[in-house]
HTH-type transcriptional regulator TsaQ1/TsaQ2 (Achromobacter pulmonis), 254 residues
Amino acid sequence: MNLARGLEVLRAFTAADPVLTNRTISDRTGLPKATVSRLTYTLAAFGYLRQDEAGAYRLGTAVLTLAHPVLGGLALRQIARPVLQQLAMETGCTVNLAAQERVQAIYIDSVRSDLANPYLPDVGSVSPLLHSAIGRALVLAHPAKQREPLLNRIKVSDPASYAAGLEYLEADEQLFRAAGHCRARGPWLADIDAIATYIPLPSSAEPAAINCTISNKANLKVDLAELAPQLNAAARKIALQYSAAPDAPSRRSG
């Protein structure tokens, strides 16, 4: 129980809010302030949090000791990297790889080719699933029967995101059936255009997806929809190489 609560404390920190007080952590996690105070004290003692002179906390460098072996052990990331590089070189786009983390998309690799593109997500950065094409592709990676529980979790945890993104998901479901990809929609990162598709991984693997993104200010004169065949081919190539790896589980069924 204490471990779970400690992890919830660490998850309260974001790139947008890197410094938090015990009161703010309590508000975000729903944990009593006295409990938060004990947890932050312990986490700081082990280097996972660092306290400033005002008494607020930020993540400590010890957190990186957890992240590095995770990234190094991600077979999907190692397999996908050369495919992402080739796709970026051929299309002139910035290409990203993301996986699902609860009700968010978490970026695990990025290859930049479009130098005008200001959006290069850091490894480990997250965004709500329904906000982006790559997030909605992750939702569509689930068989239809599994999507309803996932959408219910999104609705409960982030009602505003659910309300804003549901119509985009419905539009992308139709587009995916017709063309095999999702498309950037809505106000999130309005200066960036993107298409995305999920990687057809084994059923026991976490859903993963890739995208091609380009700045609307770039000089690349191409409709991203024309790049969909290359994007889909890259996703299939990654899936085949992943499935051919030792001890690969059975394939994901839709």
Observations:
- The chain has two domains: 3-66, 74-244.
